[in-house]
Amino acid sequence: MLTVQLLCCLTVSEELQTDRLSPIQVLEAFQWRAIQVNEKLNCAVRFLPDARKMAELIEAKYRFQTRKPPLYGIPFSIKESIVALSCSTLGYAQNLGKINQKDAAMVTTIREAGGIPFVLTNVPQSLLSFSCSNPIFGTTLNPYDPSRTCGGSSGGEAALISSNGSVIGIGGDVGGSIRIPAHFCGIVGFKPTGDLFSHVGSYASVPGRPLICACLGPMARDVDSVVLFMRIVLSLGMHNLDPYVIPFTFQEEVYTSEKILTIGYYTDGFLPPISVCGRVVMMTKEMLEKKGHRLVKFNPPDIMHLAALSCGSCILDGGQYIYDKLRNDILDANTVYTYWMYFLPLWLRRLLGKILPSSMWRVRFLLNLFVEQWKNAGLDCLICPVNSCAALPHSYPQKLLPAALFTIHYNLLNFPAGAVPCTNITESDEAELKQRYVVNDIFSSKVFNAFSKESIGLPVGVQCVALPFMDVVCLRLMSIIEECWTALKNTGCS
């Protein structure tokens, strides 16, 4: 059975389509592996009881038939906040027992295309965190080091997929919640342009955020699997389920193009990245240049203001919704530290609730400025760190929120973005950090403590970004980068 679990999604699909594997065989293999992984990492919260019946039905209907549904027999893991005829708690104890009677539009689309949702995965309480713990299901561990977080909020997905417990999964991303866990766990994650996929039936940390795009997207161990999902699901007409979904087709000619790309790059952020996170960007730059692409130093305009607006756009009510939810719930230890803002005096929260929505004109101004600078540089796409750090100790994310500022503004900008695993922290990376990392505030002090020891082997990735609706360009860049790093690893030099 383990052989099946080591296959990528593209290969599993080919084996199913040609009847060399059956849906029941594949489902059982991943159920068995997911149970094993969950015992070690605590990443799964619920195995869906209808998965076996669905596998039996589609196998009886389509096996040995020439034409099969495009996702025939592929088992999917699903982030717990995405409704799948089950209870979506979002890590709140108060939501236990509230059973959803209808699938989310994304889950419906997967089922109708022959896919089999089989397990729901863990999330942090409220979803607004890049750690992964809650008072109901506890803490999900990182597969590379159980003393460190798997990331969040799609952390359960990343941990399960990284450990071969799922071949592909669906996460959600409002500030890096697909990309950061992918980076921390050494897998691929992709946040599409907003409204390419329906949000109907998918719960958000805060309902009704008009300025920042929460996106559903695929997570897998390789870029080909993510591309397979995007290619198929974009062709299924999800706009028929949700009229607000933008009809969009996967542009094969763009993905297979040999056009030379102009690619921007930068490594600077609010919190300076540890040396390996910057090194990965610069090594990727050099490899892309060797392939003939043009690399251009890019300085994002007013990045600090953009980051502040991005964070503020998540809580346009001044934190009132989160405050009300947490006040009536059991608090996870990590939540207490992270959400200090939601316990501000009522008068201050009301004031923020008035000030933040009035920032809409500033958001539009910065969006236009960013795009103008991008166009002036002639960029097709961009590379930068996913995060200032690799996987952090469990208690650190809530105290190091600035580390996540490499991702959140691409939600505000509504740019497609993905994370690609590249390398792992080495002894020399640790040594370099001890020698060169400048400790000048409480944030950098915590980073130094986390990565000056016991961090060897943690995965590190790079973030790829493109303009809105240039998702296929972004995926092409991700594929090129994966190919470059795979070739380097095969030489033993990464």
UniProtKB/TrEMBL annotation:
Keyword check for Protease: no
EC numbers, comma separated: 3.5.1.99
UniProt keyword terms in alphabetical order: Hydrolase, Lipid degradation, Lipid metabolism, Phosphoprotein
Class of this enzyme: hydrolase
Pfam families, per the entry: Amidase
Catalytic activity field: N-octadecanoyl ethanolamine + H2O = octadecanoate + ethanolamine; N-(5Z,8Z,11Z,14Z-eicosatetraenoyl)-L-serine + H2O = (5Z,8Z,11Z,14Z)-eicosatetraenoate + L-serine; N-(5Z,8Z,11Z,14Z-eicosatetraenoyl)-ethanolamine + H2O = ethanolamine + (5Z,8Z,11Z,14Z)-eicosatetraenoate; N-(5Z,8Z,11Z,14Z)-eicosatetraenoyl-glycine + H2O = (5Z,8Z,11Z,14Z)-eicosatetraenoate + glycine
GO MF annotations, alphabetized: amidase activity; fatty acid amide hydrolase activity
Residues that hold substrate according to the record: 127, 153, 174-177
GO biological process: fatty acid catabolic process
InterPro entries membership: Amidase_CS, Amidase_dom, AS_sf, Endocannabinoid_amidase
Coiled-coil zones: none
Source superkingdom: Eukaryota
Active site (UniProt): 79, 153, 177
Keyword Endoplasmic reticulum in annotation: no
Name recorded for this polypeptide: fatty acid amide hydrolase
The species this protein was found in: Soboliphyme baturini
